[in-house]
Structure formats: C-alpha cells, structure tokens
Amino acid sequence: MKAYLHFGGPFTDKQPCSRLTTSTEEVKVNELEWQKRGLMYTATGYGGKIPTRYMVKHEGRWKRVYCAVYSNVGTCYIESNRKPIATVDIEL
Description:
- By secondary structure, this protein is mainly beta.
- The protein has one domain.
- It has one helix at about 35, and strands at about 1-5, 20-30, 45-60, 60-70, 75-80, 85-90.
- It has a 6-stranded antiparallel β-barrel.
- A hairpin with a 2-residue loop joins strand 5 (about 75-80) and strand 6 (about 85-90).
- It is globular.
- The relative contact order is 0.27.
C-alpha cells in the first residue's frame, strides 16, 4: 500500500491559487478499538473528522488519516496542530 499526499488546494489551504504538490508515503493499518469491534464512529456514518484505520508516515512521524464525510462523498486528510495539511489518496 502507498499513499499520495496532496498539499495545497481548497481543502487544506486558504490561498485560492496555491501550488498543488504531491508526495508518495508509506501506509499502515492501525485499527482503533471500536473499529476492531465493527462499530462506527458516529451513528449516521457522517461527520467532519472521522478517524480511519489508516496511518501515513509524514516527515518521520505516523499520522492518523481522518475523513470528512457528508452526503455520498468523503475527503480523507491528515492534520497538524488540528488543521488539515494534506488530502490523502490510498492505493491498496
């Protein structure tokens, strides 16, 4: 598995014309206790910061991948200081 981290763009950056850069990083599966039991984070499955079972190595540290899910689509991302810094695409 590998992850593509996309830096810049409307989800992670307040600058409308920021440069989009992409890097490839390692991925590992690290399920939380409620995920191991087959439970969902919210009753509906929707939310702005839903933890996924994936972690991505970024700048030498493992970061949890979160997903913002509204309607039929979700955007996966990692954050630093509680702010999104990159969207994530995971290739299985």
